[in-house]
User: Which sequence fits this backbone?
């Protein structure tokens, strides 16, 4: 009888463990509450204009659940001259791939989090899972689309179906930029966790509707690419994406000053508008622009006669390469605003991370060049 009771208790205990294990794999916490034992990652990986970020992971200001949430204040002042900022939750803290850490999250199909803005209208450019490189790189990377916050708590999802989650050190992250938040942004995050959802299907890029702007105005939420890819003699370039010097349309235009000094010894320089920022093909980003038949933009020179060797769409190579490329040039600029067109008919525009680019050199601009761009868009 005693043996039977012991055997029965063992079976019950074993079943309890099995059920507990089954429950455990249905979700895996990143942040639940300030002192929660379910927090498995630390928000230690500050990026970009780190001086523009302030955080409080013990905020009691109307949390979504529990007693605390995380508050971020982003000033958008560009203190490190990056124009963007973000934070990674890492394991262990400050691990940029230099040490073994992270978790095997195989079986999870999504990451969910709750967010709200202090005023409403705050923009998070994207949420990220994985993507950290180094000696011990994350096994994959996934990103959300752009998020516009309201003052009410709302749940957002990063689809992970089909992703290799066998090693994830960068458990969660967010990125935004000063162009999307010209007056800064204060926002709150809560209940960040991985979940198993067998009904969720793989996410594919949707074909974007036209027109699809690259640049409208400095503060426009319709801007889809960031001028982050500086090339060649990058020290010869100065960029003002909020110039008020006679914009073609709206309140601002882009002003580019090229000194031609050969600061890096390349004798040429250029800029790429990328999605996400600084993406040379190492990150799955960009857009499906299959409906585009052309890219149009307006340009002018400060004096007239400035020569731009090439204006370009696509062409970035890497693990996630652009699907095609097209260009025009050389172009001799007028002193008056003039519209130019890059023909995209017959091009594969299904995956474009390098939305727009321009290059010039000291041989054709021996005294440098100042030129302006505005209303850059796919149509």
Assistant:
């Amino acid at each position: 009888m005693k043996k039977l009771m012991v055997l029965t208790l063992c079976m019950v205990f074993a079943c309890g463990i099995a059920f507990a294990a089954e429950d455990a794999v249905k979700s895996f916490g990143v942040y639940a509450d300030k002192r929660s034992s379910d927090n498995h990652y630390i928000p230690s990986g500050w990026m970009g204009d780190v001086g523009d970020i302030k955080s409080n992971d013990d905020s009691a200001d109307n949390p979504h659940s529990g007693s605390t949430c995380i508050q971020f204040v982003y000033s958008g002042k560009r203190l490190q001259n990056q124009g963007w900022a973000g934070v990674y939750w890492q394991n262990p803290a400050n691990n940029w791939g230099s040490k073994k850490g992270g978790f095997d999250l195989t079986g999870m199909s999504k990451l969910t989090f709750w967010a709200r803005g202090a005023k409403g209208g705050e923009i998070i450019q994207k949420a990220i899972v994985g993507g950290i490189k180094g000696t011990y790189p994350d096994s994959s990377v996934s990103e959300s689309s752009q998020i516009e916050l309201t003052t009410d708590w709302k749940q957002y999802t990063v689809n992970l179906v089909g992703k290799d989650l066998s090693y994830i050190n960068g458990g969660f992250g967010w990125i935004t930029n000063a162009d999307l938040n010209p007056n800064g942004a204060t926002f709150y995050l809560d209940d960040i966790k991985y979940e198993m959802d067998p009904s969720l299907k793989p996410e594919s890029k949707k074909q974007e509707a036209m027109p699809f702007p690259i640049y409208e105005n400095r503060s426009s939420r319709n801007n889809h690419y960031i001028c982050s890819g500086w090339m060649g003699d990058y020290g010869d370039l100065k960029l003002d994406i909020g110039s008020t010097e006679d914009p073609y349309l709206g309140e601002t235009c882009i002003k580019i000053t090229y000194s031609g000094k050969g600061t890096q010894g390349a004798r040429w320089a250029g800029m790429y508008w990328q999605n996400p920022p600084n993406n040379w093909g190492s990150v799955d980003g960009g857009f499906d622009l299959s409906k585009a038949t052309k890219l149009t933009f307006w340009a002018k020179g400060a004096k007239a006669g400035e020569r731009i060797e090439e204006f370009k769409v696509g062409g970035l190579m890497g693990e996630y390469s652009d699907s095609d490329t097209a260009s025009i040039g050389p172009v001799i600029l007028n002193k008056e605003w003039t519209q130019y067109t890059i023909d995209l008919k017959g091009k594969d525009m299904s995956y474009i991370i390098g939305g727009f680019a321009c290059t010039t050199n000291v041989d054709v601009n021996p005294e440098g060049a100042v030129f302006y761009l505005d209303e850059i868009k796919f149509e």
Q: What stands out?
A: Residues 1-24 have pLDDT under 50 and may be disordered. The longest strand covers residues 185-195. Helices lie at 2-24.
